[in-house]
Automatic annotation (TrEMBL):
Quaternary structure, from the entry: Interacts transiently with the RNA polymerase catalytic core formed by RpoA, RpoB, RpoC and RpoZ (2 alpha, 1 beta, 1 beta' and 1 omega subunit) to form the RNA polymerase holoenzyme that can initiate transcription.
GN (gene name): rpoE
One Gene Ontology cellular component: DNA-directed RNA polymerase complex
Keywords of the record: DNA-directed RNA polymerase, Sigma factor, Transcription, Transcription regulation
Organism: Actinoallomurus iriomotensis
Protein name: DNA-directed RNA polymerase sigma-70 factor
Amino acid sequence: MIQDFPAIDGFEAERPRLRALAYRMLGSSAEADDAVQETWLRFDRTDLSEVENLAAWLTTVVSRVCLNLLRARQSRREEPLEAFTSDWLGAADEDRLPQEEAELADSVGLAMLVVLDRLSPAERIAFVLHDMFDAAFPDIAHMMERDPAAVRKLASRARAKVRGTGPRPVDPARRRHAVEAYLAATRTGDFEALLTLLDPEVELRADAAVTGAAKPLTLQGALAVARSALAAAPRARSTVPALVDGDPALVMAPLGRLSLVIRFTFTGTAISAIDITADPDRLQGITITLD
């Protein structure tokens, strides 16, 4: 689809802002250009007759493109700091003036880019959009296809990491209470209670012995993990709290024989990872203390 000239002019008017936004999210000049180019391609293929706010629409598109790029980068386990350095030391496009590259660099700062690289893709998007571009949480939630409360939590956690404070350790009593609340919510089928306990980016990992499949199972995101917990409600009725290697956990031990262990990792007060082990060899090396 070829857009009319007013629409094209509208995109070109937004291009500098879109590139600045992409650069802050990605920390790479080349990737920022790729993100803006992909946004242009989607813009050119879309019927804009029902788009009331072009700037908001373009912000949504470029944000989702950046999120996908960050996730792809993370899956490849790349270290983008080298890309940052090459960008800053002169790997600018020939068509762009050197002072434009310098202005982009100065607007973020190398130290900030390094800190941002420690954030998860979702944390980085939420932080950049809210704290750097003053976007409202409901708007960011729409862009990221998440709940506003989850986006607010992502931005708050990212802010703490950027400031170097990080989440405070959770005392054992609170961890134990959260584990017991997780078990109770699973047994009763309380989906909302599970969501309040889980970090938005929670990851569940179960070894192959848990599911009987050929490969381990991995689930990501609070919704997927909460649904999985509810599906395991029958198993939860025979699960009890315990201390596993000194940490609050859940175990199954029918007839006194250990068959399954569920361990929890916390970020702040939220459950950020769940590891489920049923492999007999691995269970042998675990120390269990029942309440």
